[in-house]
Design brief:
Elements: E1 2-6, E2 15-19, E3 29-38, H1 41-48, E4 64-71, E5 82-85, E6 88-90, H2 96-99, E7 111-112, E8 124-128, E9 132-134, H3 150-160, E10 168-172, H4 178-187, E11 191-196, H5 202-208, E12 212-215, E13 225-230, H6 238-244, E14 245-253, H7 266-270, E15 274-277, H8 283-296, E16 302-306, H9 310-319, E17 325-329
Parallel strand pairs: 10-11, 10-13, 11-12, 13-14, 14-15, 16-17
Antiparallel strand pairs: 1-2, 3-4, 3-8, 3-17, 4-5, 5-9, 6-7
Helix pairs in contact: 3-4
The structure holds zinc ion (ZN) (2 copies).
Length: 331
């Protein structure tokens, strides 16, 4: 039996349940024994019913580090291999995005690790081996889980939007996503300015490689960065944040604002500034992110809790108390 924590109705607490083991995996499918799984804000959104109705009982969890226990004959993963699994655990494989290394934009049927199927708050999870990523040495496995969603979510737009030496990157919100964004932007060579309302994070962000911490409540510096990565879920005064960008700079959303965006067209016209968003990243991007994290020693800052304290872990992430991510240790 698989031991898991599941929610029966939106807004309720998670309860320990036992799930019958499935038949042996076939094809690309693998069963992975979960070693650890961290709590992402997306898990909180699903649990709180923010994203509408999802299949319940809901077993959340999509930042998974585990060991391959059983594998289908096409999986190509060794039994015992240490792998990571993120938000996406399958795609159609035949649509145009899938055939051009943009599987995360699949139009034919994305499979999400903990939506409509059992996620990683459990002793075992099933996934498509093409979305299970061998964890390169010398990655610190105990803290690696948040890389699989948070790490990919920030690395993918930094890479796509050209973060490199000579570029100034602003990171808005220093939490689970933001602290990794600072590390990855620095590792790509950019200068980093961090924005957060909590001045007690100054030593932390300077230690991560940012050149300064600016109070996100303002006053905000004008023309300070070329790329602004917004990791918070808050609805910001967007016109103020466009002013933080230099000419032709780009504002990129990776958090999900709770309200429709409202801003003046002026910065988009007169200063040719751009706004875009980003969602996770492709398997190829995931591999480059993991390789860079291993090479540069990029380890998420995490708190550890046993799986039995899944509800406490979710509460800490929901309230913003977690520093910076909570990893549930499963086995
Ligand atoms: Zn996530
Ligand atoms: Zn597809």
């Amino acid at each position: 039996m698989i031991q898991a924590f599941a929610q029966k109705r939106a807004g309720e607490r998670l309860e320990a349940i036992a799930i019958q083991e499935g038949a042996a995996p076939e094809g690309y499918d693998v069963d992975v024994d979960v070693v650890s799984c961290s709590v992402c804000h997306s898990d909180v959104h699903l649990l709180d019913g923010d994203w509408g109705d999802v299949a319940r009982p809901l077993v959340p969890g999509h930042e998974i580090v585990g060991r391959v226990a059983r594998a289908g004959d096409a999986a190509g993963l060794a039994i015992g291999a240490m792998v990571g699994i993120g938000w996406q655990c399958g795609s159609c494989g035949v649509c145009v995005p899938c055939r051009s290394q943009r599987e995360h934009l699949c139009t034919g049927g994305k499979v999400r690790t903990c939506m409509g199927r059992q996620g990683g708050f459990a002793t075992r999870v099933r996934a498509d081996a093409r979305f299970c990523f061998e964890l390169p040495e010398p990655l610190d496995l105990a803290s690696a889980a948040p890389l699989l969603c948070a790490g990919l979510t920030v690395f993918s737009p930094l890479e796509r939007l050209g973060a490199k030496a000579g570029m100034r990157v602003g990171v808005v919100g220093i939490g689970g996503l933001g602290h990794l964004a600072v590390r990855f932007a620095r590792a790509l060579g950019a200068e980093v300015v961090a924005f957060d309302p909590d001045a007690t994070k100054r030593d932390l962000v300077l230690g991560l490689g940012a050149s300064e911490l600016v109070d996100a409540r303002g006053p905000l510096p004008a023309g300070a960065v070329d790329l602004l990565l917004v990791t918070t879920h808050a609805s910001l005064a967007w016109d103020d944040w466009f002013r933080v960008l230099d000419l032709e700079g780009t504002l990129c959303l990776v958090g999900v604002p709770g309200a429709p965006l409202g801003f003046s067209a002026d910065p988009l016209m007169d200063e040719q500034k751009k706004i875009t968003g980003s969602v996770i990243g492709s398997p190829a991007t995931m591999r480059r992110m993991l390789a860079l994290a291993a090479a540069e020693g990029i380890a998420p800052i995490v708190e550890h809790m046993p799986l039995a304290r899944a509800n406490d872990a979710v509460d800490r992430v929901r309230s913003g108390a977690a520093r910076m991510r909570v990893v549930l240790d499963v086995s």
